[in-house]
Design goal:
The protein is of the alpha/beta class and 107 residues long. It has a single domain, classed as Oxidized Rhodanese, domain 1, CATH 3.40.250.10. The protein has five helices and five strands; from the N terminus they run βαβαβαβαβα. It has a five-stranded parallel β-sheet with strand order 1-5-4-2-3. The chain is globular. The termini are far apart. The relative contact order is 0.25. InterPro entries: GlpE_sulfurtransferase, Rhodanese-like_dom, Rhodanese-like_dom_sf. It holds the Pfam family Rhodanese. This is Sulfurtransferase. It comes from Duganella vulcania. One of its GO terms (molecular function) is transferase activity.
């Protein structure tokens, strides 16, 4: 599994020459409603096992949570289940709000 910083992810998303990764937000509904990175798909952590077939195991997937711990667990779970391009957003959405989008709500 790879790790990516908020600034590295922002650069990747802004680079039209690179295919964008799937942004998998594993936070709860109220967290996702509070703030999110545009284009993110929300699947709460506790529903991942039941929805694993909704994900493309060949796609680059960046897992996102509040600070990076839950997303790390989900990325590791998916990797153990055959997903080969798992990336964890270190620092989570909080790091994104601090380093990339200062207008984003923080909690």
């Amino acid at each position: 599994m790879q790790q990516i910083t908020a600034l590295e992810l922002a650069d990747w998303l802004a680079d039209d020459a690179r295919p964008s990764p799937m942004l998998l937000d594993v936070r709860e509904n109220w967290e996702f409603e509070t703030c999110r990175i545009d284009g993110s798909v929300q699947i709460p952590m506790n529903t991942i096992p039941a929805r694993i077939d909704d994900l493309d195991e060949d796609a680059a997937i960046v897992c996102i949570c509040h600070h990076g711990a839950r997303s790390l667990q989900v990325a590791a779970f998916l990797e153990r289940n055959g997903f080969g391009k798992m990336i964890n957003l270190t620092g989570g959405i909080h790091a994104w709000a601090l380093q990339v989008d200062s207008t984003m709500a923080k909690y």
